[in-house]
Amino acid sequence: MNENHNLIKDTLYSPNMCEQYESADKYRDHLLEQYKTYSESAQKNSDRRNTANVYFLSINTALITILGYLQIKQAAHVEAAAHVLIALAGIAISFMWYRLIRSYKNLNTAKFKVIHEIEKQLPIRPFDAEWEAVGRGENPDLYLPFTHIELRIPWVFFFLHSTALIIALLATTAMSGLDKPTYRIGLGPWVGFGPLYLAKENGYFDDAGINVDLVVLTGLAERNSALKSGKVAALAAPVDYFVLAAGNNLETTIVMAIDESVGGDGIVAKPDVKTIEDLKGKKVAFQRGLPGEFFLRTLLKDHNVAISELETLDMETSQAGAAFLANRIDAAVVWEPWLTKAKEEGGGHVLASTRDYRDLIVDVLAFNKDVVSQHPQDVQKMVDAVFKAIEFWKQNPKKANQIMAPHFQVSVDKFATILGGVSFTDQGRNQVYFDASANKGTVFTVTETASVIWQEAGAIKQPISPKSIISSTFIQK
């Protein structure tokens, strides 16, 4: 310390300078002027330091604000990269800020050492006395140098930017999954759509590099709105629905069959209604525009009964089933599990079902035409994933049922029983169903039947050509 003090003293005073002045008074006057000038330079140094602090604080605040507005979204590499770059810039700027404060601190310390040395030649030593009064900065109870706090501020921002960097890097790493295209598939609460849930739960969509969200849609208007607005890219529904949609300018492309109803849909009726003809004058509930109406109209047509001869009520399937259980109606067109509930708890019987009327209600997966034309490879991946799920069910029915049953709010045993009225369509059966040759496959014949039924009902104005809404491309091996 003394060695440093002597070095400052030797450097500060010019040799034999005092002897060059005419008088000691003139020397002290000159010394005092230089002291004042130098003291002002110390103040200017503090001012520059404060200005630098404001500058760096403003930059860091701006960076934090930008980070606050940015959001790392799915498949948003640009925004993720922006987070990383801003965080790195913030870390670098904070470190430079810290180094600059240290530099100003050291310079200020040096200046006051010089000031204290000059004061030894003056009548009073105010700066040195002030420094002594506060314990020369060694007693924080008396005085805590601002620099001690000042030096910590850049480290606060350094920590914030480092945290942001870590989060951004983790998010960027996670984006391998977020980069997958996402498709929303709408479906109804029908057990035949179980393979879609199975494909999702078993990770088959993820393995194919596709994110799939399954959205339950119950009503006709809800389905139409979801397809038209693009809320869903695809819909799982019976063939007859897509014929009706096409007739109302809502174009889709059927790419695969998921299941066929073989007893899962039907008409439950009171004991006195023993034939289709007995429905005349009876209260019959069904949901318009959905399989129930199509099934009922087809059977009425086969038995030469006009629907106008019935007292029809438009109800959602669950409401129709509940109304039948409450004895408010004579018959209801429902699907499982309501078909079984109505039969067991409603004191009725199954008047007709798809077990006796096959090849009428075939559930298929159809995509918006734009998705099929622009992303055929993604459509193929989703079709393959559903086929894989059906194969899994064939090999592991108990395990598959345990996965699917919770999605339909029934027990595993009940689910297995209900599946007795459903036949999942694997890839081999799909190739038969989608046969476009002279021996038309089931999907083509159902489309033609639905076109006739809906046109007679006045639901569509023009017949729908099967080839306009069906593609056999995606079910080939």
Structure report:
Strand 6 (283-286), helix 11 and strand 7 form a beta-alpha-beta unit. This protein is of the alpha/beta class. The chain folds into three domains: 2-178, no CATH class; 198-260 and 361-475, Periplasmic binding protein-like II (D-Maltodextrin-Binding Protein, domain 2, 3-Layer(aba) Sandwich); 265-353, 3-Layer(aba) Sandwich (D-Maltodextrin-Binding Protein, domain 2). Helix 3 (77-119) packs antiparallel against helix 6 (152-178). The model is unreliable at 72-78 (pLDDT under 50). The protein has helices at residues 2-12, 24-69, 77-119, 126-133, 146-150, 152-178, 194-201, 204-207, 220-229, 239-246, 291-302, 317-325, 338-345, 369-374, 376-395, 397-404, 412-418, 427-433, 442-456, 466-469, and strands at residues 182-187, 211-216, 234-238, 252-261, 265-269, 283-286, 311-314, 331-335, 349-353, 362-368, 422-424.
Quick recap of the structure?
This protein has 20 helices and eleven strands. It has 477 residues and is of the alpha/beta class.
